[in-house]
Amino acid sequence: MHKGHKAHFLALVAQLCVLLLVIFATPLLFQQTLLTNNTTTKLKNIAGDHKIVFIDDVRLIPNIGLTLKLFTEQLKSIQVIATS
After folding, report:
1. How buried is 44 (Cβ within 10 angstroms: 0-12 exposed, 13-18 middle, 19+ buried)?
2. pLDDT tens digits for 1-44?
3. Are 50 and 20 a contacting pair, CB within 8 Å?
4. Spans of all domains in the chain
C-alpha cells in the first residue's frame, strides 16, 4: 500500500472507531519508550478506555513480543492489531 494511502486509511479507521488507540506516526524513540519494558498496569494506562490498540511498525520496537504477550494474556478485553 502506498504510504499516503496507508496514512489515510489509518486516519479513517481511527475516526470510525472511537474505542481505537492508534500508535503510529510518532517519533520512533517515543514509540520504543512507550512500548518497551512494560507491566500490565503500564499497558492498562496506555490503553485507557480503548478496546482496540493498533501499533504500526512493531518490528522497530525492542522486545515488542513481551509487550504483545502481556496484552494478549493479561489484558484480554483489549484487542491488539500489530503491523510491520
Report:
1. middle
2. 556 677 777 777 766 655 566 665 455 666 667 788 789 998 99
3. yes
4. 3-82
| Nearest alpha-carbon partner for 36 in 5, 13, 65 | 65
Cell of 10: 489509518
**Cell numbers 524513540: residue:** 29
Q: What is the SS3 string spanning the chain?
A: CCHHHHHHHHHHHHHHCCCEEEECCCCHHHHHHHHCCCCHHHHHHHHCCCCEEEECCHHHCCCHHHHHHHHHHHCCCCEEEECC
**Cβ proximity of 48 and 19 under 8 Å:** no
Q: Which pTM does this prediction carry?
A: 0.66
pLDDT digits (tens, 9 = 90+) for 37-75: 789 998 998 888 888 888 888 888 888 899 899 999 999
The answer to whether 75 touches 40, Cβ cutoff 8 Å, is yes
